[in-house]
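Shipment paperwork, digital attachment
Item: protein structure file
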Amino acid sequence: MDRIRRWLEEQNIPKHAALLDIGTGNGVLLIELAKVGFTNLSGIDYSASAVELAKAVTKKEELSLKLQVADFLHPFPCLSHYEICIDKGTFDAISLSYEHPEEKLRRYHQSLLKVLRNGGLFLITSCNWTKEELVNHFSEGLELQEELSTPKFQFGGKTGSTVTVLVFKRKD
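Attachment content:
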């Protein structure tokens, strides 16, 4: 979360940029972004209880966020034209689904292309997928812009990381 916030600030992303947190959970990322001045923040989660918790925390913090119950695999019209979409584990969770994971991953990609405007940025954090796998999965309609630095480890002569954070740009 801190890595994403710092990157957004370092890139001088306009504070009014329309941002969607896919699978917002308790909304903590959006709350932290609001605290540093971002103003056009939306979060969705398929869990009504997660969204209710996020709303309660937001109210306690006296912040204004757009939070709603929504299944990203079945987006509806009000989810569109975001300049930035952030995923910090939803893609991973969907990929571990027992029922038709390939179909769900395909729908995730389609939904992302529907809600992310041309030239928009998609930041994804994954503990399950490598850089190469994510680049391959999102190659249609998106191009890799940057890999954010994460802690590395070595094992058996190979170097790896426990988490991958990538920034893609929606092709025009």
